[in-house]
Design a protein that fits this description.
This protein is an alpha+beta fold. The protein folds into two domains: 4-233, P-loop containing nucleotide triphosphate hydrolases (Rossmann fold, 3-Layer(aba) Sandwich); 241-352, Nucleic acid-binding proteins (OB fold (Dihydrolipoamide Acetyltransferase, E2P), Beta Barrel), CATH 2.40.50. The chain is built from nine helices and 20 strands. Helix 2 (93-103) packs parallel to helix 4. The protein starts with a strand and ends in a 10-residue tail after the last strand.
């Protein structure tokens, strides 16, 4: 295991493109960290700087308190799993797993013991004689993971390792990687654009946008206490609903109805935003069908429903405002009908319309 510290890390390419801005993060020994964000946000670039595959333009990267900027990948004792598996096609599963240890000159008996142990953990014992082309995508990814963890390094890096798998394989591999991390205990940094992977696997999540960290926190913190509209909209599926409006006389007009802001934010914050643009946010699952007392109550027209088995996504609209609601499948409304729904005050968020930062709740 290793303790990592990234201090004011920047990546600026020769053409002037600034890919990562002032990245600051301390990672505890044995922690599982996920870097998430849309394509081009800088998450893979950050991972490659940690791995030593990209030079750090500015800032300091420390491993166990020692500056590692100039260290090569091997000196950093890092193992990495790529999106493309990067297996040797002419080698068997056994030889792929053993290759790194063979290069280190490890005794053959020890290699055999380690390979068989890793194969047992990953469920690959019956496939050790096969070539990668004879394996499924999930099995190949397990070989790639096994090849990385067999070296018992302190830092384990994974760059979108599940993106080539189908939906069922991704679910299986998520639980397998989490279980492996628990058994091996290496400090793990995992890059993904899939917020579901991050929410189900990480101890902490780093949300990035355009090279900047937006928020760092546990899955619970990011889901229930987002710092801005970007995080609130990125974490959660379907994404949070936002309705932009303006404050007038301590109220906002939403779906043709005036509602009091003092139910969710302090009187001081209400006064501070008088006459200013804001956005009301609530999650699709954070609603109750029908009219509820002491809730915000709205009405809209049902445009589309999507039955997903355990729930139904209901797409509703009122004028130019479009929303998604998540309801019990037994309560699925009919299309082109009016629906009344209520939002508990505790489930409502208010964001500054200009900075897009969350306004502190009461």
């Amino acid at each position: 295991m290793a303790y990592l510290s990234l201090r004011e890390i920047n990546k600026i390419y020769p053409n002037g493109f600034h890919a990562v801005h002032d990245f600051n993060l301390d990672i505890e020994q044995g922690e599982f960290i996920c870097l998430v964000g849309p394509s081009g946000c800088g998450k893979s670039t950050t991972l490659r700087m940690i791995a030593g595959l990209e030079n750090i333009s500015k800032g300091d990267f420390l491993i166990d308190g020692v500056r590692a900027n100039e260290m090569g990948p091997r000196e950093r004792e890092i193992a990495m799993v790529f999106q493309s598996y990067a297996l040797y096609p002419h080698m068997s599963v056994y030889d792929n797993l053993a290759f790194g240890l063979s290069l280190q000159g490890v005794d053959e008996d020890i290699i055999d013991e380690k390979v068989n142990n890793i194969a047992r953990i990953l469920g690959l014992t019956d496939y050790l004689d096969r070539k990668p082309r004879a394996l499924s995508g999930g099995q190949r990814q397990r070989v790639a993971v096994g090849r990385a963890i067999i070296r018992k390094v302190g830092i384990f890096l994974m760059d979108e390792p599940l993106s080539n798998l189908d939906a069922k394989q991704r679910v299986t591999m998520r639980s397998e990687i989490t279980d492996i991390h628990r058994k091996v205990g290496s400090t793990t940094i995992y890059v993904t654009h899939d917020q579901t992977e991050a929410m189900t696997m990480a101890d902490r999540i780093v949300v990035m946008k355009e090279g900047y960290i937006q928020q760092v926190g546990t899955p619970y913190e990011l889901y229930f206490n987002p710092v801005n509209m970007f995080v609130a909209g990125f974490i959660g599926e379907p994404p949070m609903n936002f309705i932009r409006t303006n404050v007038h006389d301590g109220k906002i007009t939403v779906l043709g109805k005036d509602i009091e802001l003092s139910h969710i934010i302090s009187d001081e914050n209400v006064s501070a935003h008088e006459g200013k643009p804001v956005a009301l946010g609530f999650r699709p699952e954070g609603i109750v069908l029908g009219e509820q007392e002491n809730f915000y109550v709205f009405e809209a027209t049902v445009d589309l429903t999507e039955l997903l088995g355990d729930n139904t996504n209901v797409y509703v609209s009122d004028g130019d405002t479009n929303l998604i609601l998540k309801v019990d499948p037994h309560d699925t409304p009919k299309m082109d009908t009016k629906i009344v729904f209520s939002v508990p005050y505790a489930n409502a968020y208010l964001f500054d319309g200009e900075s897009e930062m969350v306004i502190e709740k009461k």
